[in-house]
Structure formats: structure tokens, C-alpha cells
Write a structure and sequence with these properties.
single chain, alpha/beta, 2 domains, Rossmann fold, 6-stranded mixed β-sheet, 4-stranded parallel β-sheet
Length: about 325
């Protein structure tokens, strides 16, 4: 059984209600001040400190909690590169629902193992978001499961937007918020929260150059499907943004910028060194955009900037590989 996606933009009330709903599982994550190291007013929103190591728990729990008892009893399913799958598995376990996660065959073992450890059945299918979505839809239809999409649903977007409310409460003087973009659920929710609260705060989305589907879509004026994606940031690889997330970006986001994989890797190591936080490449993309200056044309000079560290699910040996690569 699938859920339909509304075309309505997420309201501030939707996000405030979600903030109350997700309190049983989601943490209010800290802002880490790294201004001295960055040589500019910069704060990191440490979503890597959420349960299952990523912001995704916000949207996943907000959606599963709103399903009927019958839907939860029958079970839920999603398609995910990893973090959303783990988040849905956690939400399902907390709410008594069986969970199935369709992941790409290229998913990191740390994410596959994480979903299984939370009680989810994991199915590996293809390498693109389209391939795993098709498999998940087929499984949902055959088994009577409810789909919990990774990004393109109003309940998911409202849940992710709670991070934006927290940023405004934690740093009222924030001038800009920089957000990584995969399918666009996080940037859609955060931008909706911020622009409907403080319209003068700049919201910037960040994509890796090898997976810039949202930037291509913004340039084209409609959602665009890329032929393929390739980036070290495995959580930012959808070949197409969601229709609803694209609509939110057009309505609320001031710009979408591009970063290169080597700069993302440098940001992973920089965050580890200066913030003492573990960030996966997807989680370091926003910080990379600030450190390399690609946001400078959009961000007021010498004003406080928040970069969201969206996730920290990376194996220690992978961090060692990144470090070794920068030394050579």
C-alpha cells in the first residue's frame, strides 16, 4: 500500500506539530562553534548525533507515527541509500511496525548492518534511487506494506523542517543556513521553517558535482532526471529530486551551489579535526561549501552561518582512507 504525496507546501504549523510529535526519539542537536578554525562566524548543526547517526529520524518518525494502527501492524517499507532506511527501522521498532528497507547494492556495510540491527529486513536492489524505488513499490503492493518515502512526502518534509526551527532558537542572529541536498527533503523542510519564520535568513542548498539533480532541475524550471550520478557522498545520489521537494526549493531556497568530491573529503577531515565530530561525506558537503567559499556570493559577509552536518555514518577505515588520500 503506497502513500500519496500532497502538492501543498509545508506550513510552519505542520513543522511545529512535527517537533512535538518526534520528541520521543529525536534529539535537539547542538550547534558547534567552529568560527576560530574557519576564520568566519561558522556553526555546525550536528545532526550526526541523532539516533542512527543522521537527521533522517525526524521525518521517518513523524510519518510512521501518523499511520493508522492497521498500517503499522501490516508493516512499512522504504527505499534508501542507508540513513533513511535506518531511521525508518528505528521509528518502526519504536512504534511496533515490521520494517523492510530496499538499499542499493553499493550501500556501505555500516548502513546495511545498522538497518538490520534495528530489526529491518534489508533487500539489496540496483545502484540508483529509481531501481530501488521500483523494487520497493513492487514489494509494497505484493505484501500490503505502507511506503515511507525517503524525501518526497509532506510528513517527511515537516519532520526534517524541525531542524530549521531548532537553528532559529539556538542562534537567533543566524544570517544563512547551508544544507546538503540528496532528494531534497532536508533542504525543503529547513527552508520552509526558516523562510516562514525569518524571511531574511538566506537558505542555500549544496550538491556534489557528480549528482547535481536539484541544480539541474532549478536551472531547467522543472524536475530533471540525470542519466547517472557518481560521488563520494553516497547519501546525495538520487538521480531526480522529488516533485514536492523541488517545489519547496523553488519557493524557499535562495540558491543551490556545487561542491567537488575532493573538497567534501577535505571537509570530512576538517570537521573531525576542528569540531571533533564524525561526518560522512554526505554530511560534510554543506561545510565544504562554506570552507571553499562557493556560498560567498549568497552569504552576507562576516555574519553567522550554520552548516548542517546531516549524518555521520562512515566506517573508521573509510576515514583512514580519506586521510591517506590527502597525504599522498
Amino acid at each position: 500500500m503506497t502513500q500519496t504525496t500532497s502538492s501543498r507546501l509545508t506550513s510552519l504549523d505542520d513543522i511545529r506539530t512535527a517537533a512535538e510529535r518526534i520528541k520521543p526519539v529525536a534529539r535537539v542537536t547542538p550547534l558547534v562553534d567552529v568560527s576560530e578554525a574557519a576564520r568566519r562566524p561558522l556553526f555546525l548543526k550536528a545532526e550526526n548525533l541523532q539516533p542512527v547517526g543522521a537527521f533522517k529520524v525526524r521525518g521517518a518518525y513523524n510519518m510512521v507515527a501518523q499511520l493508522s494502527p492497521g498500517q503499522r501492524q501490516a508493516g512499512v517499507i522504504t527505499y534508501s541509500s542507508g540513513n533513511h532506511g535506518q531511521a525508518m527501522a528505528l521509528a518502526a521498532r519504536a512504534l511496533g511496525a515490521p520494517a523492510v528497507v530496499v538499499m542499493p547494492t553499493s550501500a556501505p556495510a555500516v548502513k546495511i548492518d545498522g538497518a538490520r540491527a534495528l530489526g529491518a529486513e534489508v533487500i539489496l536492489e540496483g545502484t540508483t534511487s529509481v531501481e530501488r524505488r521500483i523494487r520497493a513499490e513492487a514489494e509494497a503492493a505484493a505484501r500490503g506494506l505502507t511506503m515511507v518515502p525517503p524525501f518526497d512526502h509532506e510528513w517527511i518534509i515537516a519532520g526534517q523542517g524541525t531542524a530549521g526551527l531548532e537553528i532559529l532558537e539556538q542562534l537567533p542572529g543566524v544570517a544563512a543556513v547551508v544544507v546538503p541536498i540528496g532528494g531534497g527533503g532536508l533542504v525543503a523542510g529547513v527552508a520552509a521553517a526558516i523562510k516562514q519564520s525569518k524571511p531574511d535568513v538566506v537558505v542555500i542548498g549544496v550538491e556534489p558535482s557528480g549528482a547535481a539533480a536539484m541544480r539541474a532541475s532549478v536551472d531547467a524550471g522543472e524536475p530533471i532526471t540525470l542519466a547517472k550520478t557518481a560521488t563520494v557522498a553516497d547519501g546525495l545520489m538520487p538521480v531526480r529530486p522529488g516533485d514536492l521537494t523541488f517545489a519547496h526549493v523553488r519557493a524557499f531556497v535562495d540558491g543551490v551551489v556545487i561542491v567537488e568530491d575532493p573538497d567534501i573529503i577535505e571537509a570530512v577531515l576538517w570537521i573531525f579535526t576542528h569540531a571533533h565530530l564524525v561526518a560522512e561525506p554526505s554530511g560534510a558537503a554543506a561545510t565544504a561549501a562554506v570552507l571553499t567559499g562557493v556560498v560567498d556570493g549568497l552569504v552576507p559577509a562576516n555574519r553567522p552561518v550554520v552548516a548542517i552536518v546531516s549524518g555521520g555514518n562512515v566506517a573508521p577505515e573509510r576515514l583512514a582512507e580519506f586521510k591517506a588520500a590527502t597525504i599522498r
